[in-house]
Amino acid sequence: MSEYRRSPQQVYAPAHAPGERPAHRGLGTTAFALGLTGSVLGLIRPLFWLAGGLGLLALLLGLAGRRRIGRGTGADDGMTSFGALLGVVALTLALVGAVLALKAVGGTTVPGPTDWPSTVASTGSPHDAPHRVQRLARTT
């Protein structure tokens, strides 16, 4: 006889019932990771634009994950919801960063049709020089 004993084999139950597909967790996890990364990048002023992109992706993936959960093919409701919430936070931080960046630059705006005469008079275009001289002569 053999000196070696065989150990009994352990039988593991499947994680899901036979014939069923396992629940998907990828969208919720990805939404959470992107939302968290976008929120952290939104706190760093020069990287606010990255926060906007990552936040938008996190929000869309979080909403897609919530739709999967509603159909019964998704799992991890908490992480999916929190990922979508972090996506909204990242988008908000990106918007605040964009407003602060525009204020730092000086809020440059394109003149509208109502601002045109005052803009031309204040900029002093070389083509308007004869008209400005005539206007100055009339006012003095």
List descriptors:
140 residues; mainly alpha; 5 helices; elongated
Q: Poorly predicted ranges (pLDDT <50, ≥5 residues)?
A: none
Q: Termini separation (Å)? A: 126 Å
What is the N-to-C succession of helices and strands? Answer: HHHHH
Q: What class, by secondary structure content?
A: mainly alpha
Q: Mean pLDDT, rounded to whole units?
A: 78
DSSP strand tally: 0
Largest sheet: none
Shape: elongated
Helical percentage: 55-70%
How big a fraction of the residues is strand?
under 5%
Radius of gyration, in Å, reads 31 Å
- The number of distinct helices, counting runs of at least 4 residues, comes to 5
Detailed description of the structure:
With 140 residues, this protein is mostly helical. It has five helices and no strands. The protein has helices at 26-42, 48-71, 77-105, 116-123, 129-139. Helix 1 (26-42) packs parallel to helix 3. The radius of gyration is 31 Å and the shape is elongated. The mean pLDDT is 78.
Brief summary of the model shown:
By secondary structure, this protein is mainly α. The protein has helices at 26-42, 48-71, 77-105, 116-123, 129-139.
List the helices and strands and how they pair.
Layout: H1 26-42, H2 48-71, H3 77-105, H4 116-123, H5 129-139
